[in-house]
Design goal:
The chain has about 450 residues and is mostly beta strands. The chain is built from 3 helices and 35 strands.
């Protein structure tokens, strides 16, 4: 990636032509009165009196995505567009971000067969978000030929990554038994750390359809197993991952495990009741004396048949977000709950305006971290950032693709100042956006 160094006020005058060429320019004024800058550059060498010593600007190629920021907020800016090395023949399934690492799950081989090789790629901020590690992690049915496109996921926390392989089969004649694979990031690359399957496998149960991880505990959804779905916990003892407790769907529930999330000693399981004539439910579990017990059951304030409440779930500390992507004629809604005493209280409800004949799918995917909530709206090829201020959730920014058919916003993630989003497609591009807020650490 090229760098541009501005050393005189004339460079500022050239900003318009630089922007037109696709170069990212950050507004600045440097004088004896100090520095006034819209975004600290990656390298700042300082100012002497009224002289500009050096400012470094990043050059980016023009992209087919845009960011709009609401008044009163510092902007998010496109930092990088990432493509796995097999872009020309790959299908992006999912992606996750934790700290300064992005892990992407892709698959190649679908151009000539329904079977392909699954790849795990890592992109590191330390390398300018260049790919730093690659591994071939298995063989499975390609998402593009599977009617359950959403049923692939990847999750990370720290150095641990869990990868879903829902179409894996230990018995060749059985399709979709499923598996979950674990990897640990090391200085030498990905280190395989575990492989789990249902101890009583059967066809079409999709073990690993959705996965989540927090510390040394992982959650694995199996929405088409048992009576209405099952969820497994898994534990890491420092050497290997082993299956822990099995959580069963309550009576009359379907698609239990279609969404899972974990934060510390709390698990949220979504059961959107995909095939039942009832609104969905989210179940909250807490770990008490080493045992996971259901402690809450959350439903929509005005449930609707087919709204798919709990198609997506997210939790961070004392906050839970639940998506209902087909609420209100497919416009979608997100419900945010706050822990109060021994229960959970609805804090706010976010909704979109219906578009006749078109599903916006607001709430299809979500990522929650430190009072910031990213909500995917793939029906409009968009993702939205909401942020909590004094107990109120406010729209901060919208990320959108020019291609309304791209399903941009199907994949979302957040960690620190970065947001990632993308779509399951053969283009395989992951977009990284960075908070433009100035922090003192940027100048150290």
């Amino acid at each position: 990636m090229p760098w541009l160094i501005a050393t005189s006020s004339a460079d500022r005058d050239n900003a318009a032509s630089w922007r037109a060429a696709g170069t990212r320019i950050w507004d600045w004024v440097c004088s004896g009165a100090g520095l006034n800058i819209g975004r600290p550059p990656r390298f700042f060498l300082g100012c002497a009196a009224s002289l500009i010593v050096a400012l470094v600007f990043e050059s980016h190629a023009a992209a087919d995505v845009s960011v709009s920021t609401n008044a009163g907020w510092s902007p998010y800016l496109l930092e990088q567009a990432l493509t796995p090395p097999e872009k020309e023949a790959s299908f992006l399934q999912s992606a996750t971000i934790s700290g300064s690492h992005i892990a992407a799950l892709t698959q190649t081989g679908f151009t000539t067969s329904e079977i392909g090789v699954v790849h795990l790629d890592e992109f590191s901020e330390a390398n300018g978000w260049a790919e730093s590690t690659h591994a071939d992690v298995g063989i499975g049915t390609v998402i593009g030929y599977d009617d359950r496109t959403w049923c692939y996921s990847i999750a990370s926390d720290g150095d641990n990554v869990i990868v879903s392989q829902p179409t894996f089969s230990i018995i060749p004649s059985y399709y979709g038994q499923g598996a979950a694979m674990f990897f640990r990031h090391t200085a030498q690359g990905w280190a395989f750390s575990g492989f789990l399957i249902d101890p009583d496998p059967s066809e079409g149960q999709f073990f690993g359809c959705k996965v989540a991880i927090s510390g040394n505990i992982a959650v694995v959804g199996m929405p088409y197993g048992g009576e209405g779905g099952l969820v497994f916990t898994a534990n890491f003892d420092g050497q290997q991952w082993t299956l822990g407790q099995k959580l069963h769907a309550p009576p009359g529930v379907s698609c239990f495990g279609c969404a899972v999330a974990i934060s510390g000693d709390r698990i949220v399981v979504g059961a959107p009741n995909q095939y039942n004539l009832a609104g969905g439910t989210a179940y909250v579990y807490s770990q008490l004396n080493g045992v996971w017990r259901q402690t809450a059951q959350l439903t929509a304030s005005a449930p609707e048949i087919g709204d798919e409440f709990a198609r997506s779930v997210a939790i961070d500390g004392e906050t839970i977000a639940i998506g209902a992507n087909r609420k209100n004629l497919g416009a979608g809604a997100v419900y945010i709950y706050r822990s109060v005493g021994l229960g959970w209280e609805l804090q706010t409800e976010l909704q979109q305006t219906p578009l006749p004949g078109h599903e916006r799918a607001f709430g299809f995917a979500m990522a929650l971290r430190a009072g910031r909530l990213v909500i995917g709206e793939p029906g409009m090829s968009a993702a939205h950032l909401f942020q909590e201020r004094d107990g109120t959730w406010t729209s901060r920014a919208t990320f959108a693709s020019d291609d309304l058919d791209a399903k941009f916003g199907w994949i979302v993630g957040i960690s620190g100042r970065e947001i990632v989003t993308g779509a399951p497609s053969s283009s395989g591009t992951i977009y990284v956006f960075r908070d433009d807020q100035i922090f003192a650490d940027d100048f150290h």
